[in-house]
Amino acid sequence: MKVADLPASVIEELVTSEYWRIDIDPGFDAKHEFFMRWKYLLPNPHTADYEEDQLAELINFNSYEILLPMGRNHHPHLNLLRLNINKDETSLTLFLFDTYHSSWFDDIHSARYGFLAVADRYQKYGCDFFIASYYHFSYLVGRDYEDARLIMQQRLGV
Predict the structure, then answer these.
(1) Cβ(23)–Cβ(32) under 8 Å?
(2) What is the pLDDT of residue 102?
(3) Chain segment 59-100, per-residue pLDDT in tens
(4) How many C-alpha atoms does 67 have within 13 Å on its Cβ side?
């Protein structure tokens, strides 16, 4: 599934509704938590000047279609460390390792930087996918950290 395949009514709802905003903390250089609306990430008149790869795109992890608040140019750098779905399958929790910002990922210790996302199920207009409501910088610990270290070792060739 791709964002371009979504009905116009879905895009309209996501870019205008207060319900579908995101609590986001992009992290790295400073803590700046804020709410963000999808109108800054999805195709609409507000993003007309954006490059196509800067816009959000659905990504598939473990057979779940998920809309995360990042440009599709991040997708090749995004590594799923863990995905948990709640009992009634209406919410996902993801631990992610994103090496897109290569200047932050130049040594093995960079494996400690990750992201925590929570995504809620969207089921309207014949669509069924998950959309992030929470996306925060997170320090990785335990198994998530060890998995990220393996990714960094492969990336760095060490």
Answers:
(1) no
(2) 66
(3) 999 999 999 998 888 899 899 999 999 999 999 999 999 877
(4) 27
Q: First vs last Cα of the chain: how many Å apart? A: 36
* Angle formed at CA 42 by CA 37 and CA 47, multiple of 5 degrees: 90
**Are the C-beta atoms of 102 and 82 separated by less than 8 Å?**
no
d(CA 113, CA 139): 5
**CA gap 70, 128 in Å, rounded:** 20
Q: Do the Cβ atoms of 129 and 156 come closer than 8 Å?
A: no
Question: Averaged over 100-122, what is the pLDDT?
Answer: 84
Using CA atoms, how far apart are residues 52 and 151, in angstroms rounded to an integer? 28
Taking CA atoms, 52 is separated from 59, 60, 77, 104, in Å, by: 15, 19, 17, 24
Amino acid identity of residue 53, one-letter, is: D
Mean pLDDT, to the nearest integer, of 129-157?
91
The DSSP output letter for 53 is G
Q: How far is it, in rounded angstroms, from Cα 117 to Cα 98?
A: 12
